[in-house]
Specification:
The structure is a homodimer of 335-residue chains. By secondary structure, chain A is α+β, with helices and mostly antiparallel strands. In chain A, the strands form 3 sheets. The first copy, chain A, has a 7-stranded mixed sheet with strand order 8-10-7-11-9-12-13, sandwiched between helices. The first copy, chain A, is globular, with a radius of gyration of 21 Å. Chain A is 30% helix and 26% strand. Chain A has 2 domains: 148 residues, 60s Ribosomal Protein L30, Chain: A, CATH 3.30.1330.10; 158 residues, PurM-like C-terminal domain (Phosphoribosyl-aminoimidazole Synthetase, Chain A, domain 2, Alpha-Beta Complex), CATH 3.90.650.10. At the A-B interface, helix 1, strand 1, strand 4, strand 5 and strand 6 of A face helix 1, strand 1, strand 4, strand 5 and strand 6 of B.
Amino acid sequence: MSEKKSIQLSHGGGGQEMGQLIKSVFFNAFDNDVLRREEDAAVLSLPGDTAFTTDSFTVSPLIFNGGDIGKLAIAGTANDLAMMGAKPEYLSCSFIIEEGFSLETLKTIAASMAEELSVSGAHIVCGDTKVVPKGCADGLFINTTGLGTVHASGISARNLQTGDAIIVSRDIGRHGATVLMNREGLELESDLSSDCATLWPAVEALIGAGIEIRAMRDATRGGLSAVLNEWASSSDVGISLNEADIPVCDEVRGLCELYGMEAFDLANEGTFVLAVPAEQADVALSVLQWFPFCPQAAVIGSVKDERKGKVVLNSAWGSSRFLELPQGELLPRIC
Amino acid sequence: MSEKKSIQLSHGGGGQEMGQLIKSVFFNAFDNDVLRREEDAAVLSLPGDTAFTTDSFTVSPLIFNGGDIGKLAIAGTANDLAMMGAKPEYLSCSFIIEEGFSLETLKTIAASMAEELSVSGAHIVCGDTKVVPKGCADGLFINTTGLGTVHASGISARNLQTGDAIIVSRDIGRHGATVLMNREGLELESDLSSDCATLWPAVEALIGAGIEIRAMRDATRGGLSAVLNEWASSSDVGISLNEADIPVCDEVRGLCELYGMEAFDLANEGTFVLAVPAEQADVALSVLQWFPFCPQAAVIGSVKDERKGKVVLNSAWGSSRFLELPQGELLPRIC
């Protein structure tokens, strides 16, 4: 009886049991016309420019304050598309499941994926299920690969121009701090939750408002530091930040002090950075502030033609230092 | 020194080390214009109908007679596209690597992927790298997701028609038998190697020769039994097979006897089944026989309007039995 409620090796064998699992869990959650065809590949019509991106998710714990691996897998891949100005349209999903994994948890995660898909309107149109023996994986890994139709062109890490304003969509570091807190079983910061969210609605509104987005990226692994250093290097410009303008909530600040980390290096999963012409910054901010997942959108700095390739962090007290590309073993299995 | 030669958690952290790993191993092996742009997503133009498919690979051992997980990941996804009549064009690849994995082996596997890509001319245009702590995965898992341009339409498991000939492209069961042999350390069958191969060149030639392909599928997990049972059920037809016409090499036959398995249920990774109008069977066979990976292409049966939903296996001695959809714990981690 209890055996039936967990995933068995036979669920990945390509036979009857796999067919039943796929139908009862995945088709049930993700139902749509293309998926129902059950061919080796989905056949799609993709006019115009198409964005294509992939991500594997190995987050631990699988369920955290504000989300789970399923929500993360959908939002994460949708966000990589959105960051190229593309509307998420079609996703594949592939599960690597450890023998003995709870069927109930798998259903919960699939339901969470379906709910997150509804934010962008994207559909899962093909998938794959593998089961590995106990001890060969840690619970569940999910790969999602996405296709989106490009609605705005020219967005590129190479496209920053002197004078551009750098905007962040909300307070930084929540996802990394939340996963750390949940992993360590910390209670003290229990109001803290991940920023995990699908960003396409905000991006669509920015494009609709005519904002000329020069560069845009969600600040996932490596956090704000990684994105800005990559931009400074790719565009051969300097980026100057005002530390006091970068929103960080008290809980994240507290955890950073406790663990000796920097909020700039922590992963986010629903927070993005964009570079826009300075004169469009106010409009961009007012558009972002319509969205509940961009509560503290702020201009945090600007693009300079000095100190090229570097990100300079200016403190409220007049001192400044380089914000470096993160190095070393940051938090593993954050996404 | 030895630490530098294995993958560390920092290689998956989104910082400097990850950037170096991606450039030195993956960009080096898969170099192309789109990949070099290093954006969150690749931007592609995909006119006409596009096939989209995903697969995660967890094969054990990672290197086996006739291939490795890299070759398998490229051929497997390319084949899912080819089976829909689509030319493999663009692939994503995503690596989940266990901390401590050999950098040298990773390079070997990447080189093997690059070599297999050259068979179809497809390119890897985006990717992802995750590193999980020791014990959280077994060495290396790879997801490949592919996009292909559809060159022949109407190929479907629902499209079999009474009288169609059923063709298999070569002797069956090699991949499953080889992985089993390598895993068990058997020496006696050492001439045996996997059929692992990219099938697009043969499919392209069949389409070019004007063969009306009704249904086509590579016989991976669940083997020939799974494909034919699915077809019989989806098209609501009977499939009658002549056992003596189904090619099985002596080594596979021997291993099946030793382990009490059926060659029909064993996985293949470069063997496909197709249904074509009976009058085109000879032309299809002669086209297939041009290709070194289809050395024993053969008509193995035909589609009937009796015993609908069932596959009947007729022995050379006049007896017959149903070939059932495989059940239970076949070989795990075959692909």
